[in-house]
Structure formats: structure tokens, C-alpha cells
Design a protein that fits this description.
Helices cover about 25% and strands about 35% of the residues. By secondary structure, it is α+β, with helices and mostly antiparallel strands. Strands 1-2-3-4 form a four-stranded antiparallel sheet, with no helix packed on it. Strands 5-6-7-8 form a four-stranded antiparallel sheet, with no helix packed on it. Strand 5 and strand 6 form a beta hairpin. Helix 1 packs across helix 2, helix 1 packs parallel to helix 3 and helix 2 runs antiparallel to helix 3.
């Protein structure tokens, strides 16, 4: 697009110079038009020679392009050649004559007024084209910027319709999913590569777990440094308000935004390796050191049930929106589905191996890889979802809006679309230059 606008700008400037009353402008415009005309004729002759050497045949579309290029170059040469001739042979009134007419009081000459008006109009046209080209260049420069300058390490959806993304150097960005736009950028001070991110719905507090099992709590409106840290922490989940549940020293503890809000271990809960929870409902699912899955009710302080997992060794738990099902992911990227009502364990097909999964709805999950799919539950029927030709590095879903947010290195995309149709994707752009 910029090349076409630049060509149009040159053409307008040439017309201005050719029809200008100043001889120097006409000569310069004529020389430029003549050079373009010679280049056009030379291009046409060169393409004809190429075609003749190839006997006007080729295996691909190359010869067709050559045949189309010959008349284009020829027409370009004719147009700019005629402009050059117009510039060199057009009669102009000497400047001394114009000055004499002005001194004798003939300022109202219609020809002079037309020339002045024409020059003003051409100046406005050229200025407008220059501004348009500059704006288009700025927009393309911004559009070429990645969503993050460093690789995105963690994503988190929070209500209502918010998305948080955190890269490897501590840049936290907040986005609005429904409008697919950037809202804010916060630089955090981090000690290691982040692995888990949770942002509270009021966008005031962020919890970041890093690769060294250190949990840092940030007040996003006050300071880039963590207000306090807790370690070692193996896993955590958002339980509502401004606090999270975490596994510290194999015990379930509540960690809040304030440094003093670190409660004692939850009464009735045993040791834990991984966990997930249902915000504001007091329901917790965790797996203990004996590889037994517990559905724990914090309101009663008792397990609803305990289920041995035998050969499954979870490293992550992913709950469904209504907390009816839980996906159990192992270290190799294989996962199984546990129905919390029937306690039935269903392994998912092994060809869906991935570390990036999420519930798109209560009965559908997204498996994110290079070629990502939707899997309908419980029939395990899979359909294509999106494929951007590169591996997914982070993924999270927002079932309320039936959207999936996924990172590909430094780029962040939103996928959305009707059920059963390949998702539309849109890259999230930071409005920075």
C-alpha cells in the first residue's frame, strides 16, 4: 500500500511541476518524468528479451507475469514520456512580464488567479498525501510490533472479560477480551521465570509463581516490586476476593494480598502436591502424596470423597466452569478426565498429548498445539480449532465468552467462533510505537 501511495505522490508532484508557471519546476519535473519513462521502456524491452530466450513458455506462473509486465512497463513509459514532453515544450510566460503586470495594477488577471488557486490546491493535495503516507507508515510500524518484546510465559483470565499476560522479563499486560484491546502495562520485578499468574478481578493484585517455587505478591497500583514473597510454593489457585490457596510445605494455606494475611493450614485437609479450586464456593480438589484425589469442602472441613488414581501421576489439575469435571495432566502431556459426580476416570486419546489445555465449555475442551483441536465430552470427538503454523507456548480459556487466548512466543492471539467451525483468530496489539 505504501508503494502505491508513494507512486501517487510522485505522480501528483510531477503534474504540479509540469503545469507550474516556474520554468525550473517544469524542467525538474520533466527530467524526473523522462527518467521514469526511460526506465519503463527499458523494463519492457528487458522483459521481451527474457520471454524470447524462454520461448514464451515456463513451468509456473512466471511467464504470465512477464507477459503482464510488458504492457505495464510500456504504458508507464508512454504516460511519463508524454508528461516529459509536456514539461519541456509547454510555453510559459517570463517572470519579468508577470512582474510588470503586477506592478501596473493588473493583479486581477484571471489567468494569474487560476494559477495561484491551482498551486494552492496542489499544495493541499501533496500535503494530504504526505500526511496519509506518514500515518500509514506509523500504523504498519505499530502493527509489526509483537504483543510482548519477550516470550510470554503465563496467561490468566479474570472476570469480567479480562486477560493478563506475563513475559519472561516481568512485563505484565492487561487486555479486554470482548473488545480485543490493550488496557494497561505494568513492569514487575521478578526473580526467575514465571510459571503461574493470577490477577484479581479488580486488577489491583497479582500473584506470580516462578520456577524456583517462590510466590510473589504485587500491588499493581503501587509498586513494581513484590510487597511480599512466600516459598516454597508448589501450586496455587484463585479462590475469590484478593487471596489464593497455595500448597506450602505440602499443606493447603491461604495467602492474601497483605503480608499478614497468611493463614494456618486448612483444617481437615491433608498433604497435597497439586490443587485446583472453585472461586467463592469453598470447593477444592487436590491430590495428596499417596496419589489420591480429594474433593474437599472447606465449609464443612471434610472430604466429599477420595479417589485413588493408581497409574496417573498429576502435575496439574484443570477444572470445568461448573466444577463438574477435572482434567488431570501428567508430566508427559497425557491427561485424563474425572467426573466429580460419578467419580469415573476417562483417559483422553493419547494423540491429544499437550501441556496446554482448557475448558471452552462444560462439555468441550481445547487442546493447544501446532494444530489445535476441540474435543467434545464425553464422546471424545475432536474437530479442528486453530492452526497458526507454530507451537502454542501458553493457553487459557474464558468459557463465559467461548474464547481461547494463546501465546506463540512473543505473540498473543484470541480465538473465537461458533461451535463446530474453525475458530477465527485475531492478534492482540499493544498501541505503542
Amino acid at each position: 500500500m505504501q508503494l502505491g501511495l508513494l507512486f501517487l505522490l510522485v505522480f501528483v508532484i510531477l503534474l504540479w511541476g509540469i503545469f507550474s508557471g516556474k520554468a525550473v519546476f517544469r524542467i525538474l519535473a520533466g527530467l524526473l518524468a523522462g527518467g521514469i519513462a526511460l526506465a519503463g521502456f527499458a523494463g519492457a524491452v528487458g522483459l521481451i528479451q527474457v520471454g524470447q530466450r524462454a520461448h514464451w513458455t515456463s513451468d509456473g506462473p512466471g511467464m504470465l507475469l512477464i507477459m503482464l509486465g510488458i504492457p505495464v512497463c510500456g504504458v508507464t513509459g508512454l504516460v511519463f514520456g508524454s508528461l516529459a514532453l509536456k514539461a519541456f515544450f509547454r510555453e510559459s510566460r517570463p517572470a519579468s512580464a508577470l512582474e510588470g503586470e503586477q506592478q501596473s495594477g493588473q493583479d486581477s488577471n484571471p489567468a494569474l488567479m487560476d494559477a495561484t488557486t491551482r498551486n494552492r490546491v496542489m499544495a493541499w493535495i501533496v500535503g494530504g498525501l504526505v500526511l496519509f503516507i506518514a500515518a500509514d507508515s506509523a500504523f504498519e510500524h505499530r502493527a509489526g510490533k509483537p504483543s510482548h518484546d519477550a516470550g510470554i510465559r503465563a496467561l490468566h483470565h479474570y472476570q469480567p472479560g479480562g486477560l493478563a499476560s506475563l513475559d519472561g522479563v516481568g512485563v505484565l499486560k492487561l487486555w479486554q477480551v470482548s473488545g480485543r484491546r490493550h488496557r494497561a502495562t505494568v513492569q514487575l520485578t521478578i526473580n526467575d521465570v514465571p510459571t503461574v499468574l493470577i490477577v484479581t478481578p479488580d486488577e489491583r493484585t497479582a500473584f506470580v509463581l516462578n520456577a524456583r517455587q517462590q510466590l510473589s505478591v504485587y500491588h499493581l497500583t503501587k509498586s513494581a516490586a513484590a510487597i511480599h514473597t512466600v516459598s516454597p510454593v508448589r501450586d496455587l489457585c484463585f479462590e475469590g476476593g484478593d487471596s489464593v490457596l497455595a500448597i506450602r510445605d505440602r499443606k493447603l494455606v491461604r495467602i492474601g494480598a497483605a503480608a499478614t494475611n497468611a493463614a494456618a493450614p486448612l483444617q481437615g485437609a491433608g498433604s497435597a502436591r497439586v490443587l485446583t479450586c472453585r472461586p467463592d464456593k469453598g470447593e477444592i480438589v487436590y491430590v495428596d502424596e499417596a496419589n489420591v484425589l480429594h474433593l474437599f469442602d472447606e465449609r464443612t472441613g471434610m472430604d466429599r470423597f477420595a479417589l485413588p488414581l493408581s497409574s496417573i501421576f498429576p502435575v496439574r489439575l484443570v477444572p470445568s466452569p461448573e466444577f463438574r469435571r477435572v482434567l488431570v495432566l501428567d508430566s508427559k502431556g497425557f491427561f485424563s478426565m474425572i467426573d466429580l459426580a460419578t467419580r469415573e476416570v476417562t483417559p483422553l486419546p493419547r494423540h491429544h498429548r499437550s501441556h496446554h489445555i482448557g475448558f471452552l465449555s462444560e462439555d468441550q475442551i481445547v487442546v493447544g498445539e501446532v494444530s489445535s483441536v476441540r474435543v467434545d465430552l464425553p464422546g471424545m470427538k475432536s474437530t479442528p480449532y486453530f492452526n497458526l503454523g507454530q507451537p502454542v507456548t501458553a493457553l487459557t480459556t474464558l468459557p463465559q465468552l467461548a474464547t481461547t487466548s494463546m501465546a506463540f512466543g512473543t505473540q498473543l492471539y484470541i480465538a473465537y467462533g461458533a461451535q463446530g467451525v474453525t475458530a477465527k483468530t485475531e492478534r492482540l496489539m499493544d498501541p505503542r510505537f
